[in-house]
Amino acid sequence: MERDGLPLDRRLRQEILFARERVYRFGEPTPLERIVLPGPGPEIWVKREDVSPIKAYKWRGACNRMAVLTHEQRAAGVVTASAGNHAQGVALAARALGVQSRIYMPRSTPKVKQNAVLHHGGSHVEILLSGDSYDEAVTAALDDAKSTGATYVHAYDDLQVMAGQGTLADEVVLSGHGPFDAAYLQIGGGGMAAGVSSWLKTYWPEIEIVGVEGIGQASMKAALEADKPVPLDQVDIFCDGTAVRKAGTLPFEICRDTIDRMETVTNAEVSRAIRSLWEGLRCVSEPSGALGLAAVMKNRAQLEGKRVLVVVSGSNIDFLQLGLIAQSEGSAQSASRTIRVRIPERPGTMLDLLDTCFEGFNIADFQYGKLDDAEAWPAFTITAESAEAIAALPEKLEAHGFAWEDLTGAVDIAFRAIPLRGDLLGHPAFLRLDFYERPGALHDFLDKLVRGRASLCYFNYRQSGERIGRALIGLDFGSEAARDEFLSTVPEHGEGYRSCKPVDSETSARLIGR
């Protein structure tokens, strides 16, 4: 594709050179840091766009595009659509250049991103929430531009925007840490991947460029397979910064020639990469910002001995989402599996299971409610240092006579739906237990204080990462006297646990439906 007599790729490289002079009026270069992960693998360098003026790379393209507006275009104002980061870049440039800007964002845009737009743009920006997706916001913004004569600044399908993003690759080349054997670049609409891959290939022609997308939002992969941008039927929005239904036309033209292969990653793999960035660099990445590292971690064995580049494209993450990611199974660095085990419904069998099959494992989640007089089906999420140990657990269970069922990813486990039949209980008591998160502490409590005195009828525990584990436990006693004796003699504080308090009668009644 040629424009102004030059092929698009040459024009893009030329515009990246011009962008050098423009973008640094609005912000400073960002650091390139090495992250060291445990075990063998490649030498990984991270371009830290999360510490840029808007905590994301999008300031580069937005500021470069708005810097070339004519006097008449500035007077008519700017319109754009964004899921958050591009909007902040437009806002930053709007205030600096004195340009009034209307920014259309999906109604689901995190508050942290809306507030950041207002912080950067001040009185020069107006946020208009429209639709439930980025594409719906784009439609509203284009209608606005058509009716008002304002300039539409596209988030990725624009030569100046692509060139601005390319300046981050210029900083990588000038850093002295290259050349790199491979670069793993996340892709939404493709603007950053186009600008960066073009510049890296110019200076290091042998570098392998890997495009990375979420498995439920692979619009560039679809475009490359169809040899043209095509819309996806549905888009997963976990990585909201790259949740684009259709790759940009101009980025596609560049990426078709510069990307050597595509890689897709799951949300769980992204969550694991977010944790690695925090542990390795104290970097808090938004999900889309960790896509590149997720793909590198997925291919560590094949990349051993190579020097690899990834980009943390942003850190604009809603605080609530960060908490959910931290508690997800995907963020665990160790191998994990959720299983349901059948055991006889009689006193001591739960502890027998813990003593035999689960010895040496970490129980990250424990859910159980009594539903039958003859048998129990408690559900456990087990973690271990090696995937081999997790894989060997079913054989261990079967050798001890326990039937089991895999529930990894089950909806009822994820939403903690723990049913309990109150009509099967005799003389129940519910306890709020705070115990120290160390191997054996929970087991010791059950062994020393509960074994032989009562049956477990309810258990609700999830590991939170704190030094104190918190569980809601239900015990069923053979008589009211046995229950009262236990409650009167159990110490509130003891070895291995910080607090053990009976739940009030009203809460107990609600748990058993009475």
Descriptive notes:
The chain is α/β, with parallel strands linked by helices and 514 residues long. The chain folds into three domains: 2-56 and 162-331, Rossmann fold (3-Layer(aba) Sandwich), CATH 3.40.50; 59-154, Rossmann fold, CATH 3.40.50.1100; 335-511, Biosynthetic Threonine Deaminase, Domain 3 (Biosynthetic Threonine Deaminase, domain 3, 3-Layer(aba) Sandwich). It has an eight-stranded antiparallel β-sheet with strand order 18-13-17-15-20-21-19-22. Strand 3 (32-35) and strand 4 form a beta hairpin. Helix 7 packs across helix 8 (191-203) and helix 8 packs parallel to helix 10. The longest helix is centred in the N-terminal third of the chain and has 16 residues, at 8-23. The chain is elongated. The model has no long low-confidence stretch (mean pLDDT 91). GO terms for molecular function: L-serine ammonia-lyase activity; threonine deaminase activity.
Quick recap of the structure?
This protein is of the alpha/beta class. It has three domains: 2-56 and 162-331, Rossmann fold (3-Layer(aba) Sandwich), CATH 3.40.50; 59-154, Rossmann fold; 335-511, 3-Layer(aba) Sandwich (Biosynthetic Threonine Deaminase, domain 3). Helix content is 40%, strand content 22%.
